[in-house]
Amino acid sequence: MTSAGGKLLFEGSDWNFSTLARVYDAIEQVALEDLHLDVYRNQMEIISSEQMLDAYSSIGMPLMYQHWSFGKRFVYEETLYRKGRRGLAYELVINSNPCITYLMEENTMAMQTLVTAHAAFGHNHFFKNNYLFRLWTDAGAILGYLDFAKRYIAKCEERFGLAAVESVLDSAHALMDHGVFRYRRPPRLSPEKQRERVRERLEYEEQSYNELWRTLPQVRKEGEVKETAEEARDRKKALNLPEENLLYFLEKNSLILEPWQREILRIVRVIAQYFYPQRQTKVMNEGCATFVHYHIMNKLFDQGQLSEGALLEMLHSHTNVVMQPDFDDPRYGGINPYALGFAMMQDIQRICTDPTPEDRDWFPEIAGTGKWRETLLEAWENHRDESFILQYLSPTLIRRFRLFTLGDRAEEPYVEVSSIHNERGYEKIRAALARSYDVGTLFPDIQVIDVDMLGDRQLRLQHNIRNGVVLEDRTRDATLRHVRHLWGYDVSLVGVDSDTGKVVYEARADTL
Question: Which residues does the UniProt record annotate as the domain SpoVR protein-like N-terminal (predicted)?
């Protein structure tokens, strides 16, 4: 049985390329004409399960340099998959222009339809239009840059040896989370001309490099007049201190790195910067893609282009994806970003078309306007998870997800329910949930605050401690050793409480 008025796009579970093309055209029509999506040109590729595992291991990129950690990840993922303890994603999508979508060859035709709508149009639209992706990434250049990075590191391995290159990559990967600009815009990637400039710069540095600069004695001798406060300020200003991007600072200022090593640091931090917006938009990105595929598959069914069997198969997968396990469920791992994102998109649609009096009080600008498409498109373009939740999470969803906040103090033997379902509680719950998606609170705030290049050359780092959360000793010390490996001189780290300014701990990496 099918809905009246249309011809089925496919029957059965088998697929071929002509069927995929026919389904793609139908999905594209709904996506562009009904939802008014704006997408990059799509490039669809069919891959095997082993190729999907390989994509997992190389952080989802179609081109990537070689590193032992990728092989380790491949073996880990493959073992879980072969034992049946982990399934594979039905698709993988790359933020590039054209937007590359990988479809698993094992998918049924119904699943190929679902993931095409989800990835090739939902994620694609979000990548192209969200302000964070437009600000921090260049989708048209990333594939060319990765091709350059792969070939460049391979040449370095041939010239300087596998162990030497791997040593630099190990340290750079250890600092990857601290290799992004968070508050200012980095230079955008540019394809051929940028690579030509890199080549010319490296050739110049190699020709002008002198080994004697490694072993220059300290310029400021003991007994000399100490640096004045004004001189210290000028020195820090010249080095742009404090600096949040640790890899960038090491790349530009380390006295021991050779030109090819600096370029490897740059490659790693460019890749880290490329993924930075995805950390900030997980709920929105998945919510957008899930809402898009759900709307499209129901629209196609209403037009008589999908059978009930195909729709039920899609809904089965959709329901599994957006399920939110309870806190006492063994599968619970926090709030499911698919569940929260999809629920918020649907809730915005409801508020725009069928608001309650409560909705009109909380969202007077959109309640009852009927403009849910325009509202969603604006939200997808101009928000990240933190601001999106802070603006659009409704009391209705707070009740549906049964959210509340706990006051947990280390000195108390109990926890206190500090916000419940009332007017003041809704605001506090929404603000607390939004803060939990602030990337600035999820990763330690560590900055380069000082280094005397003419003195002891000790690199001084500061960890601004928030909410009393300090670094774990073992991983902290291991990471500091990686910093020292790239810096070449002593490295110190001081933990300072952000509220009181009190020094909580000090650590040093003065030996390799």
Answer: 14-440
Question: Please, is 166 exposed, middle or buried when counting C-beta atoms within 10 Å of its C-beta (0-12, 13-18, 19+)?
Answer: middle
β-strands 99-104, 42-47: how paired? parallel
Q: Which two tokens stand for residue 13?
A: 């579970």
Gyration radius of the chain's alpha carbons = 26
Determine contact, residues 177/446, Cβ cutoff 8 Å: no
**What 3-state class would DSSP assign to 298?**
helix
pLDDT at 506 over 60: yes
Element (H, E) at 358: helix 357-362
Contact 386, 434 (CB under 8 A): yes
Maximum Cα interatomic distance, the chain, rounded to a whole number of Å: 93
Residue 401 DSSP one-character state:
T
Q: Classify the C-alpha dihedral 223-225-230-231 as positive or negative.
A: negative
Label residues 94-111 b or e (16+ Cβ within 10 Å = b). Answer: bbbbbbbbbbbeebbbbb
Residue 455, helix vs strand vs coil: coil
DSSP 256: S
Total residue length of the chain = 512
Of 49-53, 58-62, 299-303, 326-330, the one with minimum mean pLDDT is 58-62
Distance (Å, rounded) from C-alpha 154 to C-alpha 156? 5
496 φ, ψ (degrees, to nearest 5): -120, 130
Report residue 486 CA to chain centroid gap: 25
Strand ranges for 3-119 from DSSP E: 42-47, 91-94, 99-104
Say if residues 490 and 509 touch (Cβ distance below 8 Å): yes
Sign of CA dihedral 192, 195, 199, 200: positive
Q: Looking at per-residue confidence, does 405 or 205 come out higher?
A: 405
Query: How far apart are alpha carbons 104 and 115 in whole angstroms?
Result: 10
- Give dist(CA 428, CA 386) in Å, integer: 14
Q: What single-letter amino acid sits at 145?
A: Y
Q: What is the pTM of this model?
A: 0.83
Q: What distance in Å separates the CA atoms of residue 10 and residue 6, rounded to the nearest whole number?
A: 12
Residues of the chain with pLDDT > 90, as a percent, come to 49
Distance CA 268, CA 174 (A): 10
Axis crossing angle, helix 192-208 with helix 259-280, rounded to the nearest 10 = 140
Provide the residue ranges of all domains of the chain, joining segments of one domain with +: 17-130+281-316, 322-440, 444-509
Phi, psi of 408 (to 5 degrees): -115, 105
Burial of 386 (0-12, 13-18, 19+ CB in 10 A): buried
* Contact status, residue 114 vs residue 297, Cβ threshold 8 Å: yes
Q: In Å, what is the CA distance from 4 to each residue of 22, 24, 298?
A: 19, 21, 14
Q: Tell which phi-psi region holds residue 443, choosing left (phi > 0), alpha (psi between -120 and 50) or beta.
A: beta
Mean pLDDT score, 484-500: 91
Average pLDDT over residues 124-144: 90
